[in-house]
Fold this sequence. Notes:
This protein is an alpha/beta fold. The chain has two domains: 4-123 and 293-318, NAD(P)-binding Rossmann-like Domain (Rossmann fold); 125-288 and 321-357, Dihydrodipicolinate Reductase, domain 2. It has helices at residues 15-24, 38-48, 56-63, 77-86, 101-113, 128-138, 157-160, 176-192, 267-271, 294-307, 316-335, 345-357, and strands spanning 4-9, 28-34, 51-53, 67-70, 90-94, 118-121, 144-152, 196-204, 215-222, 227-233, 241-247, 250-255, 258-263, 283-284, 339-340. Strands 14-13-12-11-7-10-9-8-15 form a nine-stranded mixed beta sheet. Strands 3-2-1-4-5-6 form a six-stranded parallel beta sheet, sandwiched between helices. Bound molecules: nicotinamide-adenine-dinucleotide.
Amino acid sequence: xxxxxxxxxxxxxxxxxxxxxxxxxxxxxxxxxxxxxxxxxxxxxxxxxxxxxxxxxxxxxxxxxxxxxxxxxxxxxxxxxxxxxxxxxxxxxxxxxxxxxxxxxxxxxxxxxxxxxxxxxxxxxxxxxxxxxxxxxxxxxxxxxxxxxxxxxxxxxxxxxxxxxxxxxxxxxxxxxxxxxxxxxxxxxxxxxxxxxxxxxxxxxxxxxxxxxxxxxxxxxxxxxxxxxxxxxxxxxxxxxxxxxxxxxxxxxxxxxxxxxxxxxxxxxxxxxxxxxxxxxxxxxxxxxxxxxxxxxxxxxxxxxxxxxxxxxxxxxxxxxxxxxxxxxxxxxxxxxxxxxxxxxxxxxxxxxxxxxxxxxxxxxxx
Length: 367
Ligand SMILES: NC(=O)c1ccc[n+]([C@@H]2O[C@H](COP(=O)([O-])OP(=O)(O)OC[C@H]3O[C@@H](n4cnc5c(N)ncnc54)[C@H](O)[C@@H]3O)[C@@H](O)[C@H]2O)c1
């Protein structure tokens, strides 16, 4: 089987999952790892019997790599991504693609110019339930009419002490929205299949001693006039996840207990009494098999995209959607106004600069 020569940049945290996946996969040859913290680089390099480096540029030059995973703090995604593309090397970026929509656009454009693949690691897209739901939606659910996303998690103060970049506007670029909720924002808009055109939100920091938001609530108008409602927090214990979407010919529900869906006749025809109201029953999904899930599934797909010269499962353009939504929620929460999309990258950069200047804990976000 054809294999690609692979490296991983940043191996102190989730990078370890990339290293393990790359080592195990039949379409990847793990060649080397790089981390600015040489203890991490050496430890992982020795554990997996591959070369290790402090400097990722030196690794790429010496090892003639085809592709790398980038698993570094958020504020380095754009910089390291742009550097790597300069070497004509394919990039699999951990989520979020970047901190700002402007940075994401630069990365996408540069990848196109250099003719390299840019993929984003949202591994819940490759959960078997997500794949089957998306397939059902594409084949006969019709247009989305409304959607609801509730995602909460629990992070204590110690979590934010694990790295100077965490919980800051300069380093993380947001709180629960950009780090945890973004996985589900990505899924939500993938299922909805329509672009957001307006967002209004409220955000606050209720309980954590950090600069960034630990809760946000938002409503969004989509391009087909459907409406989406979202709420997030990082202080819920126990945590809750619930996603539901009503389409013109069916509905889906995904939550912590599983997934269900229903297919119905055209809703408008029932409402206008052109056909009798039916009592459709929810169906559940069971025994779905996919070859690989999680990070292994994402890396396998990415390597195949390079080998077969096709789009990765989550190309840069799709990775940009969730960061644009996150930026818009932050911008609207800060300004107290409805924000229109596509977002103006320069306007968001100005808002982020203002947020970096202040420590809003205990203050409200309005100007
Ligand atoms: N997909 C997921 O489920 C998932 C889970 C956790 C983290 N992440 C994402 O992965 C990224 C990293 O998060 P983490 O929790 O692993 O962070 P981390 O701080 O634990 O690890 C980051 C690593 O990058 C290294 N690093 C920093 N600067 C570097 C440089 N210039 N060159 C090489 N290495 C450098 C650090 O030394 C560290 O080892 C973030 O974007 C995060 O959002 C994704």
